[in-house]
Write a structure and sequence with these properties.
The chain is built from 3 helices and 11 strands; from the N terminus they run ββββββαββββααβ. It is of the alpha+beta class. The chain has one domain: Aminohydrolase, N-terminal nucleophile (Ntn) domain (Glutamine Phosphoribosylpyrophosphate, subunit 1, domain 1, 4-Layer Sandwich), CATH 3.60.20.10. β5 and β6 form a beta hairpin. α2 crosses α3. It starts with a strand and ends in a 5-residue tail after the last strand. The mean pLDDT is 93.
Length: 144
């Protein structure tokens, strides 16, 4: 999987891509921009296009095994998919740190102790075998 963390207007994420128990790449870009919406997704890479399509109104006929963040018009959203309702979107409080992915518990604990989103991903990299490579960051607009 991955670790994607949000704090103080910054999304940070690692660059490791895995398949099963193997590292496929430590230089994977995990930010996809489609029609002005930035997606930061975790889970099955093969399902990312289906989740993005569902986000824009094209339902998936099969289960989608990924979720993540979307930044749409400056708002931070958690996005996912389930069998009953299809795509779901939940606006997140921009003042509240958040993390998703296999290293999310490590990242959240690090942010609780004062770490930035970037440092939280680095903390997750120490313990989560599915988080690694480079740490990339994206500044998003924040409403105050």
């Amino acid at each position: 999987m991955t670790t994607i963390a949000y704090k103080d207007g910054v999304i940070a994420y690692d660059s490791r891509q895995t398949r099963g128990g193997a590292i496929v790449s430590d230089d994977c870009l995990k930010c996809q921009i489609v029609d002005g919406v930035s997606f930061f997704l975790s889970g099955a890479v093969c399902d990312e296009k289906a989740l993005i399509a569902a986000y824009f109104g094209t339902p998936s006929p099969v289960p989608v095994e990924c979720s993540g963040y979307a930044v749409h018009d400056g708002k931070l959203l958690m996005v996912g998919h389930d069998d009953k309702t299809g795509v779901w979107k939940q606006e997140l409080d921009p003042t509240n740190p958040d993390a998703i992915g296999s290293g999310s518990a490590y990242a959240l604990a690090a942010m609780d102790m004062g770490a930035s989103a970037e440092d939280a991903v680095r903390a997750a990299m120490k313990r989560d075998i599915y988080t690694g490579g480079k740490v990339r960051t994206v500044q998003i607009a924040r409403d105050h």
